[in-house]
Fold:
Amino acid sequence: MEEIERAGDFEALDAARSTVFGRKSRLTEIRRGLAEAPPDVKPVLGKALGEANRRVETACDARRAVLDLAREAEMLERERLDLTLPGRRMRHGHRHVITRVIREMCDVFLSMGYRVASGPEVETEWYNFEALNIPAWHPARSEMDTLYVDTSGTDGTGADRVPDATEATLLRTHTSPVQVRLMESTQPPLYHVMPGRVFRNETQDATHSAQFHQVEGLVVDSDVTFGDMAGTIEHFCHEYFGPGYDIRLFPDFFPFTEPSAGLEVWWEDKWLEIAGLGMVDPNVLRNVGFDPETWQGFAFGFGVERVAMLRYGIDDIRTFYNNDVRFLEQFV
Structure:
């Protein structure tokens, strides 16, 4: 019994139990000799052996329970979680500020009944220039420093119109080619916006980038007027920027619209141009098979980075692309 009480682990307890119940233990020898005991001694001796067995088994069970509790306590201490520490918060990403501005701009036009259209970033000269009333000899063509693409042996454009073998392909300089593709494949009335990325061979500085984003819009319907266009743009600006911004239109020139205008917003004591717009030129309508006598329309194009800079007070376009977490976390 003393050996059982002193057992410090399960191995020592099993060894103590074997001392009592093992094949060579004293109790086992007495049990074997029970058959040779006198008849009057057998009952007394059997009862004593049974009592001894119960006492030892009870003591072993009690010691085993104590050892079980000690092992469980040790395990709990070893695997204990310090719930007083703050949890480690999972970090989640969020939309880039440019993506966010594009979605917000499109949401305003969606609320006005417009739909969203998209097209390829690699275009042919037909969709990017000629269908938009910008032939090769036009001076406006030289204003867009274009990045041409070598697609020898492949089409690479997904164009509905099969390009001529000699026709060059390029990274689109505006999202206006989507307007041409839309008019080729869809009959009026059309009320669409076209967000997307565009490319120009420009030197990077605070206000210029070789890639940037636009949200353009196109409306083609009967009896569309310049007043409809001005009202649409005014409604968008007041919905997106709020009532604290003043806007104005000024005469401008774009080959694919006539008449044309620029849109300026009063910001930090000066007028800042953020968009170009105008009535769709009849030649563009003819290029896609629309009769200018039946259908009229207007188009507009916003520079997304310029809009974001205006809304959030950002003074350098390069900050949008530097992937500086300190900058990006401001737009969670």
In short: The chain has two domains: 2-78, 97-331.
